[in-house]
Amino acid sequence: MMTAPLTNSQNLLLQSGRWKRWEYAMWALALALPLVLPRHTLIINEIAIVALFALALDLILGYTGIVSLGHAAFFGMGAYSAALFAKLVMPDPLLGLLVGIAAAGALGAVCSATILRGTDLTRLMVTLGVGLILMELANKLDWLTGGADGLQGVVMGPLLGKFEFDLSGQTAAWYSMTVLLLVFVAARRLVHSPFGATLKAIRDNRLRAMAIGIPVNSRLAVVYTIAAAAAGAAGALLAQTTGFASLDVFEFHRSADVMLILVIGGVGWLYGGVAGAVVFKLMQDFLSSITPQYWTFWIGLFLVVLVLVGRERLIRPWTWWSNVSKGGSA
Predict the structure, then answer these.
(1) 159 has which bridge partners?
(2) Under a CB-based contact definition with an 8 Å cutoff, are residues 200 and 63 in contact?
(3) 3-state DSSP call for residue 163?
(4) Which of 62, 227, 257, 293 could form a disulfide with 58 if both were Cys (CB 3.0 to 4.6 A apart)?
(5) pLDDT tens string 88-112
(6) How big, in percent rounded to 5, are the helix, strand and coil portions of the chain?
(7) CB-CB contact of 259 with 57 (8 Å)
(8) For residue 310, what pLDDT is reported?
(9) In the predicted model, what is the mean pLDDT of the chain?
């Protein structure tokens, strides 16, 4: 049976979705980091979780154009769901991760109706309001969540029945890094598919997308649910690898920080969230060790310079050196 030849747009999608050699090398190095840098496994785990959270937000911000300041609601839902499952039902990490993803995805499906109408400012306020409501509920339901004291006594079982979550954090780092890679692969497949192409069309011009027959509302609801589930996975990882869940997971600074991470790394590019998370967490760790009281000032100054100068100009010396090292012209 003969198949129809691929169109130019289909060929472009296939080419853009193909993995490059440097990507294989980069992810192999990332998975080897807990073994290569055993003293830094805790921050490696934090970077992986924050990168996953940033990737979740980029799915709706960078690829669909939905601005959100309440993505921490799904992060917190995943954290509390996984922690409660481990404490009240069973401590299996993988099942707890699936519970966190499912709970955050269900919340995202319900909240997706709030982003279908209105302007960007309206969505900002609505998404922020959802996060504040959930934080207040977690505070009031102290008999279940622990309230302001947080949910304590969360003990995780061994991963795959063999790998214990030790104090060094090596198992946690590998666990979070592996989940990040799996979600990244799924997100990459999504954004380079025909479904992802319709999301970009909606981002560029929603009215034109509706005019050519794209079901805009259903697309927005689906991608919002997927992004919420990915954020829930990040929250579940945080609760599982730290053994604790508190109201902090719902706070506004979570959503603000992940927005800043995407500003640093770039939106509409899946590696932007990963790169931004690496830069942000390393800067935060380094600056807070030097100036514990004023580290936020230096990060703020860096962001101002980044916006004023431009990301492309800041990385231009690296691009120049890369061209020279390959034998190209300067």
Answers:
(1) 163
(2) yes
(3) strand
(4) 62
(5) 888 888 999 999 999 999 999 888 8
(6) 75, 0, 20
(7) yes
(8) 64
(9) 81
Beta bridge partners of 151: 245
Domain ranges of the chain: 22-289, 291-330
Which residue is associated with the tokens 């302007």? 119
Range with the lowest mean pLDDT among 137-146, 209-218, 315-324?
315-324
Q: Is 89 exposed, middle or buried (0-12, 13-18, 19+ CB in 10 A)?
A: exposed
Please write the tens of the pLDDT for every residue from 72-83: 889 989 999 998
Whether the Cβ atoms of residue 66 and residue 224 lie closer than 8 Å to each other: yes
* CATH level 2 (architecture), domain 22-289: Orthogonal Bundle (1.10)
Provide the 3-class DSSP secondary structure of residue 312.
helix
Q: Looking at the predicted structure, is the pLDDT value of residue 13 above 90?
A: no
- 276-330 pLDDT, tens digit each: 888 888 888 888 778 777 777 777 777 777 777 766 655 554 444 334 434 444 4
What per-residue confidence (pLDDT) applies to 325? Answer: 39
Question: Two tokens at 122?
Answer: 């309206």
Tell me what pLDDT residue 51 has.
Answer: 92
- Residue 195, token pair as written in the block: 């479904």
How far is residue 70's CA from residue 51's CA, in Å, rounded to a whole number? 17
Nearest to 234 by CA among 279, 179, 187: 179
Q: What is the mean pLDDT of residues 127-138?
A: 83
163 phi/psi in degrees, rounded to 5: -100, 110
Read off the tokens for 11. Answer: 């060929």
d(CA 297, CA 303): 10
Q: What's the CA gap between 330 and 325, in Å, rounded?
A: 10
What is the full DSSP assignment across 70-112? -THHHHHHHHHHHHHHHHHT---HHHHHHHHHHHHHHHHHHHG
Strand partners, 245: 151
